[in-house]
UniProtKB/TrEMBL annotation:
Gene3D superfamilies: 3.40.50.1860. It comes from the Bacteria. It holds the Pfam family Asp_Glu_race. Keywords: Isomerase. It comes from Streptomyces goshikiensis. This is Aspartate/glutamate racemase family protein. PROSITE patterns: ASP_GLU_RACEMASE_1.
Length: 263
């Protein structure tokens, strides 16, 4: 089994680590675009051109499925990526986990990039899956960039700013950018202070999208299998290794076999 994952940068690490946990036997192909990142400020047409190039580089390795581990690319480029690769390679997009977060009927906060916060795309998800639920959209300027570059001080600053905008009675938090899942412990600590120690339920997309990819190819999670899967890294199409910043996160170290797997 071979699963490819794509993103502009290291936000794909969370989904890759989830896939490694669920199927230790799967070969992983990680395709990112350091030459063209960040994708967020690009026009939809420009972003799609970059995303298709990254997807083509991954597709050359003949994966069984491709995970678009990027919310922004999923919003703007998913139809083009599917037209390019399907039906030969199923393409699985990443959607913020608003539906499960709203299911309990509590107070929901959606942490997302400024471009996604308030967008028709996100508002549509709220309308479709969280009608009647109290939802607060929380913009997180600078957080994804700080995570990408491994800038711990900037991560703490950006998280603190977003936590200050989060209602203190929040019960469920949606991490609406794949980068945010890499610093969920920092986010949890900041929100624990904000809520007086009452920890909300966190909803990420990494494991659900990995499970969906397996489902699309008729496979199932088998975390007890021996770890025999390999790792291929492509940086703007060039064979490479995980960048040093990726190894600053538990998910990156797990992928190269260092330390224990992240929970």
């Amino acid at each position: 089994m071979k699963i490819a994952l794509m993103d502009s940068g290291i936000g794909l690490l969370a989904a890759a680590a989830a896939m490694r946990r669920l199927r230790p036997d799967a070969d992983l192909v990680i395709s990112s675009d350091p030459d063209g990142m960040p994708w967020g400020p690009r026009t939809p047409a420009d972003l799609t051109e970059r995303a298709v190039a990254v997807a083509r580089a991954a597709a050359a390795h003949r994966p069984d499925a491709l995970i678009v581990a990027c919310n922004t690319a999923s919003v703007h480029s998913l139809p083009n990526l599917r037209a390019e690769l399907e039906p030969a390679i199923p393409v699985i997009g990443t959607v913020p986990a608003i539906k499960p977060a709203a299911a309990a009927g509590g107070r929901v906060a959606i942490w997302a990039t400024p471009a996604t916060t308030g967008s028709p795309y996100q508002r549509g998800l709220i309308r479709d899956f969280a009608a009647g639920v109290r939802v607060t959209e929380v913009p997180c300027p600078g957080l994804a960039d700080a995570v990408e570059h491994g800038n711990e001080e900037e991560v703490v600053r950006a998280v603190a700013a977003a936590a200050a905008l989060t209602p203190p009675d929040v019960t469920d938090v949606v991490l609406g950018c794949t980068h945010y899942e890499l610093v969920d412990e920092v986010i949890r600590a900041a929100l624990a202070e904000r809520t007086g120690g009452a920890e909300p339920v966190f909803h990420g997309s990494a494991e659900p999208v990995a499970v969906q990819a397996l489902r699309r190819i008729g496979a199932r999670p088998e975390p007890g299998l021996p770890r025999t899967g390999g790792l291929t890294v492509l940086l703007s199409g060039r064979p490479s290794q995980l960048p040093a910043t990726a190894l600053g996160y538990a998910e990156g170290r797990m992928l190269v076999g260092e330390n224990t797997p992240v929970a």
